[in-house]
Amino acid sequence: MIALSPPQASSVAGSVDTLFDVMLALTGTVSVAVFVVMIVFCVKYRRRSHADRSNANQTRLGVEIAWTVLPFLMFMALFGWSISLWSRMRTPPADAAPIYVVAKQWMWKVQHPGGQREIDSLHVPLGQPIRLVMTSQDVIHSFYVPAFRQKQDVLPGRYTQLWFTATREGDYPLLCSQYCGTDHARMTGTVTVMKPADYARWLQAHAGQGLAEQGAERFRRFGCSGCHDSQSGVHAPDLDGLYGSTVPLADGSQVRADDRYIHDSIMLPRKQVAAGYAPIMPSYSGRIGEDDVLALIAYIKSRRTAMEAAREQH
Ligand code: HEC
Ligand SMILES: [Cu+2]
């Protein structure tokens, strides 16, 4: 049999296909009905036919209400159904495991929290929710896995996410679905879904320095520690416990220190200056890659205050 659609390999694939089939059937029925009526009238009112052309003025209120209200209800039902499915596809469960993706012309760079790195391939375990945190190094790309029925734009200067639970073992094509330059069509890869035990073995075999440790190393290499260490002579904020806290800004507003805030603090330090400090931090935009920023964020996340660390012990 010819496959009309890619395999259904994620927890939402079946629902997306059902919605698609219902919409296809509905719009198909309407199109066919319009063409049937058109052809019937073409024949009935062809030139020299003896059809009634007196053009009597008649109204059938019931019919007119029915053909207005019924399609309206049908399309509202489709709308409600789509919205509920869409919000399910956009809301990752709390226990979803993060994996980081950096897109650049023309490749997908994948970084697992344990330090495993891949290019143009992504290994995931079967049956476990995975949350991809994605950003682009250059232009807009779009992460698309047809077998998962999931797609998400990947933008420079922003973190977008996509989540899925793979439900079938195997290799599935990964595509870029946003025209991104000369080699766009070759910006492809493979998503490999493995049994949890095989996946654990794969992680072990490819384990590297953890993402947070890589960040710690970069923090020294890029000179961040020269200003941000407590021993440094420069008046710069202490980054312990920064992640998730509320930061007062020089303009009087406040902001929550999330991934995006830390990203922008590094790449666009003038955008939001912490209150009480001079805007002396240099911009790292163009000097370090988005994968470096991801490692730095992981490192800053791992830096708790002494108090938080003590609380976690208990
Ligand atoms: C020349 C000294 C200097 C260097 C080098 C430097 N910073 Fe900063 N950084 C500052 C100062 C001063 C501020 C506070 C003013 C501001 O928000 O721009 C700051 C703010 C920050 C903030 C926001 C902190 C908060 O409390 O809101 C983060 C995050 C940060 N830096 C990370 C880094 C990282 C990561 C690096 C290395 C890639 C780095 N900094 C390099 C001086 C520096
Ligand atoms: Cu692309």
UniProtKB/TrEMBL annotation:
The chain crosses the membrane at residues 22-43, 64-86. CDD domains: CuRO_HCO_II_like_2. Keywords: Copper, Electron transport, Heme, Iron, Membrane, Metal-binding, Respiratory chain, Translocase, Transmembrane, Transmembrane helix, Transport. Gene3D superfamilies: 1.10.287.90, Cupredoxins - blue copper proteins (2.60.40.420), Cytochrome c-like domain (1.10.760.10). Its EC number is 7.1.1.9. It is an enzyme of class 7 (translocase). Binds a copper A center. Residues 1-93 form the Cytochrome oxidase subunit II transmembrane region profile domain. It is found in: Cell membrane; Membrane. The keyword Electron transport applies. It catalyses: 4 Fe(II)-[cytochrome c] + O2 + 8 H(+)(in) = 4 Fe(III)-[cytochrome c] + 2 H2O + 4 H(+)(out). Subunits I and II form the functional core of the enzyme complex. Electrons originating in cytochrome c are transferred via heme a and Cu(A) to the binuclear center formed by heme a3 and Cu(B). This is Cytochrome c oxidase subunit 2. It comes from Rhodanobacter caeni. The gene is coxB.
